[in-house]
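BUG: 3D viewer hangs when loading the predicted structure for this chain

Environment: internal workstation, default settings.
Expected: structure renders.
Actual: progress bar stalls at 90%.

Input used:
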Amino acid sequence: MRYLIFFLLLGLTTQAQIKFWNTDPTSNMPKFEVVWGTKTTIFSKVGGDVKPLYVFNKTAQQTFNGDGRTKYQMTVASTDKVAKRTFEISYTHHRQTNNYLGYIKATYVYFDKRPTKVLEEYFETVKNP
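Structure tokens produced before the viewer hung:
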């Protein structure tokens, strides 16, 4: 009986998590993760290692549900002394294949003389990672 209660509590406290991997293996933004209702984390390559770079304490809201797919979107920003970084994050759940496709448009507006930089990255989920 103790084991049943333990596993029941463990199952109820775990949260669904989706991991998106970049379709371009040479990208500096190799993946992002979504923990439902809690946070979104964008990872970056730093010296060859993949590390969490931006953590936003929100998740995308559902904006479309039809034609066998559900779309989620959000816009978040991060500002420091170097630049203002805006991330437009969207991902779509395709119900027929039970697969997610993700997209991030990152806009970096630098405070010095560097030009504004816009990156568009495409992601997909990997089955049985």
